[in-house]
Design brief:
This protein is of the alpha+beta class. About 35% of the residues lie in helices and about 35% in strands. Strands 1, 2, 3, 4, 5, 6 and 7 form a 7-stranded mixed β-sheet that branches. Strand 6 and strand 7 form a beta hairpin. Helix 2 packs across helix 4. About 20% of the residues are buried.
Amino acid sequence: MTDIHAQELAGRYVALWNEPDAGLRRKAIEEVWSGDGIHLLQPPAEIREVAAGLGFDSTALSAHGYDEIEVRVARSYEEFVAPGEFFFRPRGDAVRLRDVVKFTWEMVPVGGDEAVGGGLEVLVLDGDGRITADYMFPGL
């Protein structure tokens, strides 16, 4: 496996969620994820509760491959970053254990310093150091 520095990868990963240029965002996605990579999101508690009420014992939202991941990242950008209210930043806690990188990130108001949201990211890398599975746990 390539020599990937965990904090540098966390920085690149978070930066693409803030990228305003759609072309550069797509390029960053292709550099960070493998072509068959998957992004799995643990949905908010209210969605999990509705799913449980319908008989689902687990819920995960997923985007698979570059096109679906691009839509997912673009929607997040449009909702949180584009209006000029928030930006995302990695915390300085990224660690790597073989092919797994774990780190936390924050959502911060523009012009502020205190996080109003955030989450835990667990990335599984392929032999080239690109993401094959991305497990996102927001709200932490």
